[in-house]
Amino acid sequence: MRLLRLSDHGGLSLTKHDDDKLPPYAILSHTWGDEDDEVTFDDLKRDDCGRGKAAYDAKLLFCGRQARKDDLLDFWVDTCCIKKESDAELSEALNSMFRWYHESTKCYVYLQDVPALKRDRDSEQPHWEAAFRKSRWFTRGWTLQELIAPRVVEFWSRDGHFLGTKESLEDLIVEITGVPASALRGASPSNFTTNERLRWAAKRETKRPEDKAYCLLGLFDVFIPPIYGEGTHAFVRLQNAIGKAQGSLSRGLHSPRDGGDAGLPLRAEEHVHQQRRRELLASLSFDQMDSRHATINDAQRTTCEWILTHPDYMAWNDWETTSLHQGMLWIVGKPGAGKSTLMKFAHSHAVKSKVEEETVLSFFFNARGNDLEKTTLGMYRSLLFQLLKGVPELESVLDAVDANTTTGTDSSQWMLKTLQNLLSIATRRLGRRQLRLFVDALDECDEQQIRDMVEFFGDLAEDDPENQSRFSICFASRHYPTIDIGDGRRLVLEEDAGHAEDLKKYIQRRLQVGKRKSAGDIHALLQDKANGVFMWVVLVVDILNKEYRQGSVYAVQQRLAEIPSGLSDLFKDLLRRDRTRMGDLLLCLQWILFARRPLTREEFYFAMMAGLDHGVDHSTEWVPKPWDPEEITAEDMRLFVLSSSKGLAELTRSKTAPTVQFIHESVRDFLLKDDGLHDLWPELDGQLATSSHENLKECCSNYLAADLSSCVDPAQELPKASSAEAKTLRQQISVKFPFLKYASNEVLYHANEAAYGIDQTPFLKAFDLQKWIYITNIYEVHNNRRHTRSASVVYLLAENNLSRLVEASNRDDFWRGSPDERYHIPVIAAFANGHRAALQELLGDGGAAFIDGIVEDPGFGKPSQVSPNKDILIWTIEGYNQSLAECFLTLHADRYIYEIGFWKSSNQTALILASRKGATQVVQLLLEQGADVNAQGRKHGNALQAACCYGCTIELVQLLLDSGADVNAQGGECGNALQAASTFGYEEVVQLLLDSGADVNAQGGYCSNALQAASSNGHEEVVQLLRAHGARWPS
């Protein structure tokens, strides 16, 4: 491999290295200009090295100088580092190109067609972004591997301004190129299918047709000798090479120009396809996905059948009339009217009666469930899962998914837009198949999400190029929110005669008052008071049957007269009549209302045990015992759910772990919206949420006292988090102490929520931090996320964005380091995880002026960018996190978070680094804190020289001079500040230095003096300026 190097006099030299003895090097990525402008291998053999060509300064010197800034002496540029006249060398280069880019220390992308303009005050985007999106660099074949292969890629404008890295610009690059984020982050190309890799290159062009195949060699890790002149036959040879590499000869590989899904039907390839599709399909599914549907009671025999002959339903069900109602039917009704039961019946009938070319899907929102049960994200996942399971030939749509978006064991990374796109693609591929959807309980999802979802489905129904109208959807919700469904049909449940007849049937079948004359009057009054609400009838019938079993029909009549209409008033009446064990009821309701997620049956039982008759209400110490399933059975726990909730809660019917929820969403409405909790417990006035979280915090804290010695020896080190031993340990402890995982994960969350009204300082002082760390480390599945014993409370609070607890913590600890922790100090823990609220508390009033700038810093919310081995201040400046650096220096210059002295790994001071980065405000603050303006650094000499080298501004140089910088200080690669400014052609700065007394003939540096530096780098204006001040050529 040939590498370039800038000589001591600013010239270029070319050396050849064995691949196993390569020095660290930078590499250039660019698009070729006119042949006459590019510097070639032959040009470098001439005396002038092609200095007169446009690319000499723009590309070669740019790459060489930037490499020097990054402590790299050698660099590679494709135009001149390959002897193309040698077939052997050309073949080696083309087949090694991907590896060469991959092994580079840094890749600089020079964008000839992107200028760097400052951000407009009125614009959300920098001016260069529009040009960046349209850059020719993103359309060329060879630049695809140059984007993917290198570990570090920096983008630079044509005027030498840094635009960002592959990491910081990731979202934009993914949008422009269609290359998945995981591929940009370093995932092996072999993780992606052949078709995927071909799609990345589909719209890219090369100057010669053969190069469209040759530029893909590295992406497929195959080797073929180039034969220029063979044209598209190169793809035949590429096909054979890929087939051989994958174990079978393939057929049907097409050039990326052909587009589409044409690809490589290899047996090995197909196995990879199928395995990955299975993993992705499995990751769409989630626990409790079907629990709401399963928990809804089936319709009573002969009820709900009226819907099948209702004119609106029949019209919606008729594909021939879809154009009249846009395939939409919206069933609305009061809370508890029976919408979900009707939807379950209609869905079940549609499934049973569907024809071969029809697919029926459903989703039932559940506000009492986990996040996926009550968001459109969960709905899209469920619908896509059902669709692909029901129509397996559509599974190929998953091939378009980023290979590392999710795996079979981690489904947390599915994005809403990805799911919508996949659904759109899948429905378009249905052809003449009919797709019918049932979506229930829209009111149990966020209103804006529902409006966006209805709009999405409306667009989906209209997105039919042949106007086949093969898509229809039935929604059900309360009357609010009001949703515009255009010409769609609307059915009001409680106003329909069929629904009234169902109520009548239910009462006749279930109410036990015999056949006496008064039975008819009782039936009629009961139905009249129901006002069309089925849930009210179900509850009241149960109440009246209990009265009747005591032997008095008059008691039934009297009780019915006393029972109020409306669900909310009914719930209030039920709870006021039974005042026994109200403490149990309150804690039960608090757990269901304020738990961070729905509790499983076992979690709920032991959470309640941790708060009843001990701990919360009594001073006696309580220690949880291991669960004995023979002593406390599943039936015991089910009955406890019913008794503690007084019948207002139930267990979901789940294929996995059943969870505890209210019998209906109207219970939550009664307790919160209708002030039911306040009426029952007026002492909670104004403190409902905080006192509830306080109780739940105490339950968690009590359960953390569990003795785990029967499962693990506390004196022994825990097994590695990802090991089989650790997994077994987690399972054993979860079986014996079912509530421990929730208690450890959420005790601080509940404390933080309680802190809005209750001082948590005593709690934090008494909190057993070491035991909490030990337990959470047991449950942590990633080793690098475990905590050490040196972690402070405030560090953990900052890392988890527990801002109210941060406020209650010891402010002296805010900047105190935890050297063995991932982020070292609390401020960086909050910053790296993107926790603005915690940062605001950590920084206090003094940091308010910086917070908006800090959240715009490139490292905010990016844990992977934190370097554990660097001084914090050095890290912030180096990563262009200037607002954070300014905040450090303004608020805590006297703290121990940094030293203004040397950074041992490269012997440069914070002042030199800030000067090199052009961070004028940071330089100002460092100088105010006493930084030595003339401190020496090995490579960059001093701050003044560094400022004159990189990102040079006249304001920064003037600041350093005004602060006492020695204009003639010697040292560093450029020798002195004047030679540095001359090397990079900063004419204004050269003038300022000369006016400030710079020695125009000072010797030193790799160019000997300033005049030689300016001349070697082609800066004629600077040469004339120096000559005018008496500059002489070095002897």
Describe this protein's structure.
ANK repeats lie at residues 906-938, 973-1005. It comes from Friedmanniomyces endolithicus. The longest helix is centred in the first third of the chain and has 18 residues, at 267-284. This protein is an alpha/beta fold. The model is unreliable at 118-124, 248-255, 257-268, 404-409 and 896-906 (pLDDT under 50). The protein contains 49 helices and 16 strands. The chain is 46% helix and 7% strand. The protein has a 7-stranded mixed sheet, with helices on both faces.
What is the mean predicted local confidence, pLDDT? 86
Biggest sheet strand order reads 2-1-4-3-5-6-7
Q: How does the major sheet shape up? A: 7 strands, mixed
Beta-strand share of residues? 5-15%
Stretches where pLDDT is under 50 for at least 5 consecutive residues are: 118-124, 248-255, 257-268, 404-409, 896-906
Number of strands: 16
Residue share in helix: 40-55%
Q: How many domain units?
A: 6
Overall, the morphology is globular
Radius of gyration: 36 Å
Judged by helices, strands and strand pairing, the structural class is: alpha/beta
Number of helices: 49
Distance between the termini: 35 Å
How are the SSEs ordered, and which strands pair?
Layout: E1 2-6, E2 12-16, E3 25-29, H1 41-45, H2 54-69, E4 74-76, H3 87-103, E5 106-111, H4 128-133, H5 142-148, E6 153-157, E7 162-165, H6 170-177, H7 181-184, H8 194-201, H9 211-214, H10 217-220, H11 233-245, H12 267-284, H13 291-295, H14 311-317, H15 322-325, E8 328-332, H16 339-353, E9 358-364, H17 376-390, H18 416-428, E10 434-440, H19 447-462, E11 471-477, E12 489-492, H20 497-510, H21 518-530, H22 534-549, H23 553-562, H24 567-577, H25 582-594, H26 601-609, H27 634-644, E13 649-651, E14 660-662, H28 665-673, H29 676-680, H30 688-703, H31 724-736, H32 740-754, H33 761-766, H34 769-779, H35 793-799, H36 803-808, H37 826-832, H38 836-843, H39 848-856, H40 872-878, H41 882-891, E15 902-903, E16 908-909, H42 910-916, H43 920-928, H44 943-949, H45 954-962, H46 977-983, H47 987-995, H48 1010-1016, H49 1020-1028
